[in-house]
């Protein structure tokens, strides 16, 4: 017994000497769809400007074709944050019955002086106005995505119901090829590919997302409320670093280095992404703060034209900007 007691106390002493166990950083899995629009895969590539990466959290970016497939993954617990459109937010709440919150922004559209996702047709197609799309084949990256819902809103404005056109789903990089091959009559073309398309007389720009929805908060981050509550400290650190990263990329002095990071990830020449954070890019708030009024207006439009089952109240029911509030306070205190 004396020997057992001695061993027990020796073990206790070793535990005390070892000190408290250090918790593993929380792995935060973030869904994304497009580059350079969403920027998720490269935002955390500059650890020297991030305060908490590798300490309280790590990031795993996960690629999807659109926001709708991300919703399936979020509901299944396969990702923690998703880049959501307004339509997907409504479907998350109304169809999937998820308790989710908008926590930060990615980009807005329909803002004067800034780019919006653009739908293109062939110049020889005979399509010169939106009404000409009746009975046509229109490409979409995913039903319910930001560009898909804006497209449907634009067509509805011009008297075209969902039964009067055919949707063909495809990845964004394939859109121009589908037009060239005559497999679709109209398609959304993203930057930087849009720059060449706009300058090519073979194509005609027909409309953009702003024509369908006006000023809209197009893409933003959402997460399950339970995940946010359970991991609040790590999520707070993540959102602080998220804002720091965006501010670094947006700073004019950092644009050459930022463009090189983006170009390296996309495997394209730097010149192809030099448009970022200029008038040719989406509107991006300095602190990635979503415009909840614009988002609510979009939700109301989608409900009115029956693209979502019913309207919902974004704030305060499905938004939590307290993480951004604290992030801005921390950054102001320690730039």
Question: Quick summary of this structure?
Answer:
Helix content is 38%, strand content 18%. The protein is α/β, with parallel strands linked by helices and 335 residues long. It folds into two domains: 26-111 and 216-333, Periplasmic binding protein-like II (D-Maltodextrin-Binding Protein, domain 2, 3-Layer(aba) Sandwich), CATH 3.40.190; 118-213, 3-Layer(aba) Sandwich (D-Maltodextrin-Binding Protein, domain 2).
Main-sheet strand order equals 3-10-4
The CATH homologous superfamily of the largest domain is called Periplasmic binding protein-like II
Overall helicity: 25-40%
Low-confidence stretches: 1-19
Indicate the CATH class of the largest domain. Answer: Alpha Beta
**What's the mean pLDDT score?**
92
Number of helices: 12
List the helices and strands in order. Answer: HEEHEHEEEHEHEHEHEHHHHH
Separation of the first and last Cα atoms: 60 Å
Class by helix and strand content?
alpha/beta
What gyration radius follows from the Cα positions, in whole Å?
23 Å
Description:
- The protein is of the alpha/beta class.
- The chain has two domains: 26-111 and 216-333, Periplasmic binding protein-like II (D-Maltodextrin-Binding Protein, domain 2), CATH 3.40.190.10; 118-213, Periplasmic binding protein-like II (D-Maltodextrin-Binding Protein, domain 2).
- The protein is built from twelve helices and ten strands.
- The protein has helices spanning 2-18, 67-75, 86-94, 146-157, 175-180, 193-198, 209-213, 225-230, 232-250, 255-266, 292-304, 322-333, and strands at residues 26-32, 57-63, 81-84, 100-109, 118-122, 137-140, 166-169, 187-189, 203-208, 216-224.
- The strands form four sheets. Strands 3-10-4 form a three-stranded antiparallel beta sheet. The chain has a three-stranded antiparallel beta sheet with strand order 8-5-9. Strands 1-2 form a two-stranded parallel ribbon.
- Helix 9 (232-250) crosses helix 12.
- Mean pLDDT is 92; it is low at 1-19.
């Amino acid at each position: 017994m004396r020997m057992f007691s001695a061993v027990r106390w020796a073990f206790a002493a070793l535990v005390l000497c070892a000190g408290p166990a250090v918790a593993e950083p929380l792995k935060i899995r973030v869904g994304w769809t497009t580059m350079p629009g969403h920027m998720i895969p490269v935002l955390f590539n500059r650890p020297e400007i991030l305060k908490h990466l590798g300490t309280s959290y790590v990031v795993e970016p996960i690629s999807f074709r659109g926001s709708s497939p991300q919703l399936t993954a979020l509901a299944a617990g396969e990702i923690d944050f998703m880049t959501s459109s307004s339509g997907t937010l409504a479907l998350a709440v109304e169809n999937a019955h998820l308790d989710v919150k908008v926590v930060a922004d990615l980009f807005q559209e329909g803002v004067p002086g800034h780019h919006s996702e653009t739908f293109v047709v062939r110049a020889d197609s005979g399509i010169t106005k939106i009404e000409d799309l009746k009975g046509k084949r229109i490409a979409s990256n995913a039903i319910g995505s930001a560009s898909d819902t804006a497209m449907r809103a634009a067509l509805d404005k011009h008297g075209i119901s969902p039964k009067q056109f055919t949707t063909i789903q495809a990845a964004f990089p394939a859109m121009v090829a589908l037009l060239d091959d005559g497999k679709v009559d109209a398609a959304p073309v993203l930057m930087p590919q849009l720059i060449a398309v706009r300058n090519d007389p073979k194509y005609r720009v027909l409309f953009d997302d702003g024509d369908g929805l006006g000023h809209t908060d197009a893409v933003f981050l959402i997460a399950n409320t339970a995940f946010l509550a359970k991991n609040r400290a790590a999520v707070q650190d993540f959102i602080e670093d998220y804002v720091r990263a965006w501010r670094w990329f947006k700073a004019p002095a950092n644009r050459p280095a930022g463009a090189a990071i983006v170009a390296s990830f996309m495997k394209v020449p730097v010149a192809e992404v030099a448009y970022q954070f200029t008038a040719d890019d989406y509107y991006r708030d300095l602190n990635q703060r979503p415009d909840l009024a614009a988002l609510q207006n979009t939700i109301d439009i989608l409900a009115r034209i029956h693209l979502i089952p019913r309207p919902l109240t974004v704030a305060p029911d499905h938004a939590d900007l307290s993480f951004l509030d604290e992030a801005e306070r921390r950054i102001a205190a320690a730039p």
